[in-house]
Each structure stands twice: as structure tokens, then as C-alpha cells.
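Recall the central idea of this unit: under ordinary conditions, the amino acid sequence of a chain determines the structure it adopts. In this exercise we apply that idea directly, starting from the sequence alone.
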Amino acid sequence: MLVKLFIAEKVNNFPPLPKFIPLKPCFYQDFDAEIPPQHRTMAKRLYYLWMLNSITLAVNLVGCLAWLIGGGGAVNFGLAILWLILFTPCSYVCWFRPIYKAFKTDSSFSFMAFFFTFMAQLVISIIQAVGIPGWGVCGWIAAISFFGTNVGSAVVMLIPTVLFTGMAVFSFIALTMVWEERGVPCCFREPFLLPWKVSVSCSCSAPLDFLFPTCYRCISFTGGAVGASAKPRRSGPRGRGRTPMSSRQHRTRRWGRHRGP
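Accordingly, the structure predicted from this sequence is:
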């Protein structure tokens, strides 16, 4: 009896595009099927944070339009369109997909990529919340300073300002939550770091495969585990507590003190 196994191929389902658009989704995304249960809630929260970022950029476009109608420059409106088109897909690819892959496969490299790119996202959100005029964002400086020109437009500009502020706060909270959920490597608690990866069992209850994997107390110079109570091997000649000798001292000790003729 022949048993036929049908393996269903994963079809990309994100972003969900209308049928009349001659483009196909680029990614496959399924939290229930790919993300472990212990990380599923955090992954969904980060996805909602990405959606909030996209909505904020769209609302910022409306605020810049009100800024333009109230007497502001057209540069801000043009830059707002650029930020919406640029940051929406880039934020998904640069920091959400790495953390999705990190939760899916427990990849240390994906976690590292997420932390670096999401820190940049946090800095960008803070700059957007500040609202420097001429940068295409409705922040606090731009909105408050425009009250003297057009009150109605300034009130509309306050909406994306509040959203940018909330985005910055939520981004900081999300970054700390992922950091705590991932765990702090033991080497960050030590004054001496070893920037190479050694596959050992560290006695510290922390992940060993993220950035700097071990601390100096958990390995020997040959790369083997020596336990947390062991100390690094001393350099120099045999004997505990001795300091390395110079070449002159070594010759004197080996051949005796040189005597003149």
C-alpha cells in the first residue's frame, strides 16, 4: 500500500494585497504556526507596534497637509509623503522581521540585528516627537510654534505629535521587554569581556550565544569549561604567585652569576 504524503507549501500572505493589484505578498507570517507559545504574545505586541508606527506616519501626512493649508511650507508635506512610503516597509523589514525570525528560530544573530535596528527606530521616534521644523514631521516644537499662525492647523498637528510621543515611549518599553525576555548575557556582568565564541556550559544562568557568549570565569585559556569558582591561568613560569622574569634574570638563574676573568 502506497502512502502519499502531501506537504502543503507555505504561501506568502503578507502584506495582504487586493486582487486587482498585480503584485504578490512577499512574506509568510503566521504567529500560531511559527512562533513558540512563550514568545507569541511578545511577537504580536511588536507587530501591533509596527502597525502603530505606520498609522502614525499616515496621520503625520494629514497633519503636514493641515500645516500646508494653514500657511506652512510645502517641503514638510513632501517629506511626510516620503517618510510614509519609506519607513513603513523599511521598519517591517529591518526590525520586525528580524525579531519574528529570532522568536521563530531562536537565532542570536536575528536578536542582535533587531536590537541594533530597533535602537535606531527609537532614536527616530524621539526625533519625530520633538518635531524639528522642515523635517516633515509634526512634533512638539512645530505644533506649539504654529499656534501663533493658525490655531486650527496647530490643533490638527497635535494629533500626530501625541502619536509620535506614544510611539517613542512604547518603543522604549518594547526594547526593555525583549531585552529582559531574551536575558542578559553573563559577560555583561563582568569587567573583562572575551569577544570570541566558545561553546561551553556556563554556570551563570544566562544565554551564552548572544554577542559575547561567556565570561572569563567560565572558561580557561584553552576553551574548556573550568567552572565559576576557577580563576584564569597565570602567565609566566611555573609556581603560584610568581611574576614573569626578564631574559637577563633567566640567564642568571640558569647559568649562575657571571664572573669576570
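The helical segments are 31-34, 37-69, 74-105, 108-130, 140-145, 151-182, 247-255.
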